[in-house]
Amino acid sequence: MKPRVLIIDDDEMVTGLAKEILGQEYDVESCDSSAAGAEMTGAGNFDIVLSDLKMPGLDGIGVLKRVKELSPKTAVLIMTGFASIDTAVEAIKLGAFDYIAKPFDIDYLKQKIENALGRQKLKEEVADLKDIVSIYEVSKALSSSIGLRQILKLILDISCKQLKADSGSVMLMDESKQELFVGAHVGLNEAAINNTRVKLGDKISGWVAEKKETILLTNGLKNDIRFNIKSTRSEIKSSMVTVLKSGDEVLGVLSLNSFKSVEFFNEKTLKIFSIFAHNAEIAIKEARTYDLLSGLHAEVERLSKER
């Protein structure tokens, strides 16, 4: 898949030429309106934005600030005339990746774009390493802790921090009643969740438990016919929810929520989320084994004292 580049410039000759030449290596779009061009990045689909500095209405600095609000990972390159170099340098201080002086050599422009893409790739690799470290921390905790609720709370704390979720919960299965109850939570109202019980098939967690599936919700929770929800939490814009199981047995449901954007979570975060879910499954199984052994030990102690 080609990297996506957006060119924002009110000079149609510049955008036309750059689009024609760069289009051989990149997926290029252009916009002659600075304000409209900045808003186009809202979907987060562009890797690079090339923006002229001097434009009517919103100038290049304004475009830079708006792009960074809407799509922080998008790299912005400022195009400018020689007289505006000082302003371009100021743009770098505000978050632009680099500036390109007009008139520019096409090979030089391509090199700047490749440098920006290389920096993005490096940042992603560093982020992946941080994910691995976080997963290792959870795994290490599982080998050193016994309390189920403490371990589940730790998994939630780390996964919320790493995936930048605003709230989350682990619901455990009550086999005798075939319903879910909250075993651990982050960012939820304590009073509201204390008596929360969800039947299999009811609401999102009950649906996920019944279907034994993992879902990524990127359009909020309204108007989804899969779930029997009479009212929703309007602040939740995006969610990841997965069943926790051992073989065919449902152990519970893990969920993380974002209040930031309907597209905040994606397929990459879902993969990391699934690894945290696997750790939660291990924690539940280990805790069950510990509880069983503790019960047997207590029984042996009681029988020994009766002799």
In short:
The protein is an alpha/beta fold and 307 residues long. It is built from nine helices and eleven strands.
Keywords:
Beta-Lactamase; 2 domains; Rossmann fold; six-stranded antiparallel beta sheet; five-stranded parallel beta sheet; 48% helix; 9 helices; single chain
What does this structure look like?
With 307 residues, the protein is of the alpha/beta class. It has two domains: 4-122, Rossmann fold; 145-306, Beta-Lactamase. It has helices at 12-22, 34-40, 60-70, 85-93, 106-144, 148-163, 190-193, 203-211, 267-306; strands at 4-8, 27-31, 48-52, 75-80, 98-101, 167-174, 179-186, 197-199, 214-217, 238-246, 249-258. The strands form two sheets. A six-stranded antiparallel β-sheet has the order 8-7-6-11-10-9, with helices on both faces. Strands 2-1-3-4-5 form a five-stranded parallel β-sheet, sandwiched between helices. The longest helix has 40 residues, at 267-306. The chain is elongated and about 95 Å long. The protein starts with a strand and ends with a helix. The mean pLDDT is 82.
